[in-house]
Amino acid sequence: GQQLNQSPQSMFIQEGEDVSMNCTSSSIFNTWLWYKQDPGEGPVLLIALYKAGELTSNGRLTAQFGITRKDSFLNISASIPSDVGIYFCAGQPPAGTASKLTFGTGTRLQVTL
Amino acid sequence: DGGITQSPKYLFRKEGQNVTLSCEQNLNHDAMYWYRQDPGQGLRLIYYSQIVNDFQKGDIAEGYSVSREKKESFPLTVTSAQKNPTAFYLCASSNWGDYGYTFGSGTRLTVV
Questions:
Q1: Is A1 close to B40, i.e. CB distance below 8 A?
Q2: How far apart are CA B41 and CA B25, in angstroms?
């Protein structure tokens, strides 16, 4: 099955730095989602984007739905140690259909003090 | 509180034995999913079910089986036919018209 291309694959940053990651697809999606997976746990939804061009924030997180509907971006400002984990993007076809989420390959974030 | 529960958190089995992983949700969600995650890898879909008594194969269904006899339950059996069963298994659920999945906390299966 298709997986979305996420980059970078991994990041090692210092506490306080900003982080940017992106996700691209060959298909158009109606909804983009960003999840975070803590080590040894299941992914948790961070942000959902519903409209092309939309920019949405959740605390230190900001995500954007690309104009082409084929990409999305996630930024984390002023990183802290608890930001460590794997970040997954996911694209969703129109709600109400029998279609499944398509997940990205993940970006592993490590934060050093 | 509503949620999705996977049990056990850690599971050890001998090679050649079948093992069943439990997934229960009280969110009244219609659809349920099983994913496999290997170290440093993304999520790969094993099976999914959109209604009771119906399920479909995902991308890596070989060596696995599922049942959906009740709306709230979607157990996954890892059979002896699965060549490399050691992995982290995630269950998820969703509802038509909703956005995104709710995930369980996962089961780490180790076959020795």
A1: no
A2: 26
DSSP structural state of residue B101: -
> pLDDT per residue over B28-64, tens digit each?
999 999 999 998 788 999 999 999 999 999 999 999 9
- Look at residue B2 in the predicted model and tell me its pLDDT: 74
Q: Tens of pLDDT along A13-63? A: 999 999 999 999 998 898 999 999 999 999 999 999 999 999 999 999 999
* Mean pLDDT of all residues belonging to chain B: 93
What is the distance between the alpha carbons of residues A102 and B36, in angstroms, rounded to a whole number?
A: 14
Residue recorded with tokens 């949405």 = A56
Q: Can you list the positions of beta strands (E) in A4-106?
A: 5-7, 10-14, 19-24, 31-37, 44-49, 55-58, 61-65, 71-76, 85-92, 102-103
Nearest to B96 among A40, A96, A108 (CB): A96
Cα–Cα distance measured from residue B82 to residue B15, given in angstroms and rounded to the nearest whole number: 10
| Peptide bond just before A8 cis, omega within 30 deg | yes
Is B97 an interface residue toward A (CB < 8 Å)?
yes
Q: How many Å apart are CA B32 and CA B47, to the nearest integer?
A: 9
